[in-house]
Sequence to fold (671 residues):
Amino acid sequence: MTKFLMNLKMSKTKDKVKAVKKSNGKQSKAIGSTQSLSSYVKSICDIMRRSNCASALQYVPELTWILFLRILDAQEQKEREEAEVLGNIYMPALVSPFRWQDWAAPYSDKPGHPKTADGKPQGWKRQELFAKGDKKLFDFINNELLPHLHGLDIDKATGQPNPNATRKQRIIGRIMTAVERVRVDSETNLRDILDKVHQLHTDNVDDTHFFTLSQVYEDLLLKMGEKNSDGGQFFTPREVIRAMVLTMNPETGKTIFDPCCGTGGFLAVVYEYLNQKLGKDIASTDIDVLKHNTFFGKEKENLVFPIALANLVLHGIDQPNIWHGNTLTNRPTYGALFENAPSTFDYIFTNPPFGGKEGKDAQDRYSYSTSSTQVLFVQDIIAHLSHEGTCAIVLDEGLLFRTNESAFVETKRKLVDECNVWAIISMPGGVFSTAGAGVKTNLLFFTKGKQTDKIWYYDLSHVKVGKKTPMTLAHFGFDKSGNVIEDSKLPATLTSDWLEDEEVKDEAFPTYAKMLASKSESRYSWTIDFAARRAEALEKMQPYKDNAAKLREEIIPLKEQLKVFKKEKKDKEEIKALELQITSIEKVIKEQEAIISDIDAKVFDLKAVNPNAVVKTDTRTTIEVIENIEAQAKIIEDAMSNLKKMLDKSEKEAIKQQTKNGVLNMPSRTQ
Fold:
């Protein structure tokens, strides 16, 4: 039956393409590559930029809802056709005249022009509005379409969720909730945008490249993280996400969660990975689980929540289970799409906000109170991981090495006590420069249910990356398919130091991808025996613990004696002397406890410090350094001397030439 439906779909698609070509009177040029598709979308953004959507933070949300309604219409047409084949009744989420095919699709009265599901020419409503005069399309969208779409989810009379709404209608309502009016300020430009967006479908985009439409959308989201934009906080470089997913190698049939999902990048990339893993012969039941019951997320920002929903739908996740609200306060803004979520999850992929601060309402929910957003998120993640569930998380360097605040230390203690931290990647400082953040980061991987004994580290901090030279999968040693890449294809920024070293340049470069399976040691990878570190710290602390315990025993009779002295009203000097003795001992106890605490805290400094790094040192003597400076000065002096000679010769030749041509002014006799 599935094969029959696919053949039928292909047949109908071909018929529709022929109809489009016929109605246009000429063949539509197919968009046949990612590059041409990207250029095409850029042309849409150019129209928006000159039409009251100057920045990415303005035109990306505007294009989001327009693109979403286009894709939704295509999906509904496909679902209706499949239902008809099976003899089932199909109930669409949108009805006339609120479907894209009614008000947004281009209109033509030529024979062969595509028809709507109820037999009208596509674009009939748009043509009707055009005939009524200028601004009528705006009036329809602002006063009829948008209120209708908002009302799919929220009952206009009560302001409460519509109990009769289908899940798809709830998603539509949530995506459209941030759209109050059309931002584009020219109907002519809006019609141009609608026409161009209408072409973004399999009728006009080569089937082998259609999935790249979602990748082009990711490029648009990246623009929200450009300089002077607030969008960067919502964007994690997709190549970094793909490396994290390849490291985790998630299984199908498991739940995937991101507690601060932003635009949904982690969930979208995991979906791509699992979809490819299942292959072309995927069973319909597996498709249903993958699209409906696999991906869950939470997002706080009002601007980003609808974009996340649209992004996931665009990637193929028909029913995203996204909760809108503050994860850390557990206070929902909108939670209806998250009703079927489990209490714990098999995999968590996430990048908590850097440097965020939370108030008491969030802090009071966690065992170790702090305003640091990332520390609270780590506690939240541990609580929401299933037994033997695994997490891949981006954390800033400060969280790893800070040992001067109790919440940081205790959270990391909880992490290594309840979870096995099995890998940490030290990332270059410029990885998040595209998102407006230069903070040093690490990738952590851990599995709940067993305490940490050993931590394997890999160092990528030597790689030079930035906005124009971003991190790629190749820096991790993976090719685009996730296979281990050949040394000859590795980036020069990764291997330059290695190839300059005469001792190792002819050996295979130890990429992260190569080292991961065996967790081997190399110039860039090493293992910390965390259990041994803890045991060593306990041994080091023991003398101080023993001494503090001994002093506590000594102080007990002294305090009892003090009580007696005060009761018997002994001489004030005797009482004072005893009090000073007790205070002195208590001070020593506190000093011992501070040393114990410091030794203990240092155990939880998880910062990556590569013991195998080759440090280039200057072995020259002071005399040799001075001689080198003198030699360099001589080179500069000779160069300046030669330059002066060249300039002098050039000036003389110029004067000679001017004199010859009679151009040079001769001085008068009166001068």
